[in-house]
Amino acid sequence: MPKALESFTINRAIDGYTVRIELDDGETAEFIADYEQLELVTEEIEALLDQDEEGALSVDADTEAPEPEED
Questions:
Q1: Per-residue pLDDT tens for 9-30?
Q2: Strand order in the sheet with 28-33
Q3: What confidence score (pLDDT) does residue 55 get?
Q4: Is-contact 31 18, C-beta < 8 A?
Q5: Which residues fall within 8 angstroms of residue 30, CB to CB, at 6 or more apart?
Q6: For the stretch 1-26, what's the b/e string if a residue is b when 16 or more beta carbons lie within 10 angstroms of its beta carbon?
Q7: pLDDT at position 11, please?
């Protein structure tokens, strides 16, 4: 079963970037990535979010806030 992401940070390092990922159970992992690797990750995230954008931004009619009553 996939673990839930708690937080992540990306910081510059001498040999690229340090990516630190923390899971909701407290487990952490650190990775070194170069510019090209982070660029690929960014492109993949953007492509997936672009696909899901319409659904994420649409409001379900059942959860839509009621219109304010006029006096």
A1: 999 999 899 999 999 999 999 9
A2: 5-13, 16-23, 28-33
A3: 73
A4: yes
A5: 18, 19, 20, 21
A6: eeeeeeeeeeeeeeeebebebeeeee
A7: 97
> What string of H, E and C letters represents the secondary structure of the chain?
CCCCEEEEEEEEECCEEEEEEEECCCCEEEEEECHHHHHHHHHHHHHHHHHHHHHHHCCCHHHCCCCCCCC
pLDDT single digits (tens) 45-60? 999 988 887 777 775 5
Please name which of 51, 52, 5, 47 lies closest in space to residue 29, comparing C-alpha atoms. Answer: 5
Contacts of 7 (CB under 8 A, 6+ apart): 21, 22
* CA nearest to 37, candidates 13, 70, 2: 13
